[in-house]
Each structure stands twice: as structure tokens, then as C-alpha cells.
Amino acid sequence: MAVATEQQPFGEDSSRRPNVKSASAFRTISEVSTELDLPQHVLRFWESKFPQIKPMKRNGRRRYYRPEDLVMLRHIRGLLYNDGYTIKGAQKLLRESGGKIEEVGAEITKTETASLSAEKTNELKAVLTELDDIKKLIS
After folding, report:
1. For an engineered disulfide with 110, which of 23, 87, 94, 131 has Cβ 3.0 to 4.6 Å away?
2. Which CATH number is 87's domain given?
3. pLDDT tens digits, one per residue of 5-62
4. pTM assigned to the model
5. Other residues' Cβ atoms within 10 Å of the Cβ of residue 34
6. What's the total number of domains in the chain?
């Protein structure tokens, strides 16, 4: 008679802590895609349009994004999705600033980048949505 034993699904180990990378760690395209809520093909496209984004490529052209690449990608995402810039407009702005992030409130430090988890980002998005709804009611 066989005895049934309870097994954990493959890859799950309750004794392991969650995989949290340090702020200075390199990230793969899938990690960046998840963190910035962007499809991977958009990140690849932006690499062709913005020379400021230069991930390292290793092992069969696998991309590894540096922390400064992540800061620049966040800035570009903000320009395109939040501030309403076109790709040409964002390119011009970055070219004129020498590729530096100089706008007020746009600079994100490595510590702030590390402390922004996906959960916090979702909470902030919910608050922004709620504030927009309130603004519409007042107007």
C-alpha cells in the first residue's frame, strides 16, 4: 500500500526568502519589463530610439540593465506616458539636456528606486486614480 506524501510544487521552498535584488544589481529584460509595466518589445524599441539606454549584452546577446539604465527608462516612460511627449520630443529633450535628468522632481535616486516595490507602485496608481475621480467631481 502506497503512502501519499504531500509535496511542494517544483521550485517552491518555504525556507527561502523572496528573491529581492539590491539597488545596484543588474536586471534582465524580463525583470525590467515587469518592474516598469512595459512589454519587452517596447524596451528593445526604446534602445533603438534612445542612445542613452545601453544595456550590457552577454551570453547570446542577453540584455542586462544597469541601475542607471533603469532610472533613464523610468524617466523616458514618464515623458512618454505621463507628460505626453512624443518619441521625437523626448529625444530632443534628452539631447538638449545632454542625456541627464534635470527636470524638477524627475530625478530618482538609487535608494528611491530600490524602495519602490510593485505593491507600492500599485498603491500609488490607485491613489492617483482616486484623486483624478475627485478632481472630475469637483470640476
Report:
1. 23
2. 1.10.1660.10
3. 545 455 444 444 455 677 778 899 999 999 999 999 999 999 999 999 999 988 888 8
4. 0.57
5. 13
6. 1
